[in-house]
Amino acid sequence: AGCGLEILLVLCGLKFSWSCPRHCICYTAPSTVSCQAHNFLTVPEGIPPDSERIFLQNNKIHRLLRGHFSANTVTLWIYSNNITYIEPSTFHGFALLEELDLGDNRHLRTLAEDTFHGLNRLNALHLYRCGLSSLPNNIFQGLRNLQQSCDCVLSASPQDNHLKFLQDDTFMDLHNLSHLFLHGNRLWSLNQNTFRGLRALDRLLLHQNQIEWVDRLAFHDLKRLTTLYLFNNTLIQLSGQCLDTLPALEYLRLNDNPWSCDCKALSLWEWLKRFRGSTSSVSCQAPADMVGKDLKELRKEDFPNCSPTVPNSESRAQTNNLSGTVNPSLNRGVVALEGRPT
């Protein structure tokens, strides 16, 4: 009987020493606070300071301020709220944070340059559908563990934001990033150093932008890239030399662009003839006698009076034994600085 009473006292002690915010559900091992879908306008008070996982998605929270969360947080989901402002120091000192989902906050227009500084363990950052029109130059500085971002999943996921321009070296420190999803923005050009530093990148989604110009060295650091989506942009031409810098490429989608299949398309045509991976159609929209034809199916004779292209010294034919259709698993909606995966 004495032993039973002792156990009861211990349990009661635990119950009264551990708090949980009203309308939330809390768990232990790991310490978790689940407050999703309760129409909270602010971060609820009383979140235990030892909480490791905090789920606040699908509320109406407007602001994130320093002191709302503790440095013990490992996982923080606060997607699908009404966040308009994040105090720059909100996450300062969060050395244990590994996953941060801020996606689907459509009124979040700007982020301070140091918002994510010091998050050395962060491996997943989601910023999809946030209405961001730009990213500060050093926004990802020091995030060397990031594998999924700009959802910048790692996936940097800035998709379905309003990004029009990316500063050179924005992703310079993201050496471990494997997925970068930038589709559904308003990007119009890709410069030589836009993707510098992304040496581990495997998948780059750039479809549904307004891209009309790609520097021939835009992808020069992406030696491990296997998947590149450029469909549904405004590309008229693309240099074959630009794609020569992608030795691991397996899946390429270029459809739904207004391709001009004149002499300027010769280097791309030659590259496509060498490529052994999977590509979409490349439908010609000009000149008039080429409209509706697939650039891949044209013959050398279709480029009369065109000067031969100068081969790139690093050019090499792709030898991957792949089927001629785009990998079906990649046709599903994947999201990053765009929309949360389902």
UniProtKB/TrEMBL annotation:
InterPro entries: Leu-rich_rpt, Leu-rich_rpt_typical-subtyp, LRR_dom_sf, LRR_TM_domain-containing. Residues 306-325 have a biased composition (Polar residues). It comes from the Eukaryota. Keywords: Cell membrane, Cell projection, Glycoprotein, Leucine-rich repeat, Lipoprotein, Membrane, Receptor, Repeat, Signal. SMART domains: LRR_TYP. GO terms for cellular component: cell projection; membrane raft; perikaryon; plasma membrane; side of membrane. It is found in: Cell membrane; Cell projection; Membrane raft; Membrane. It is a lipid-anchor. Gene3D superfamilies: Ribonuclease Inhibitor (3.80.10.10). Residues 305-325 are annotated as: Disordered. Residues 1-19 form the signal peptide. Belongs to the Nogo receptor family. This is LRRCT domain-containing protein.
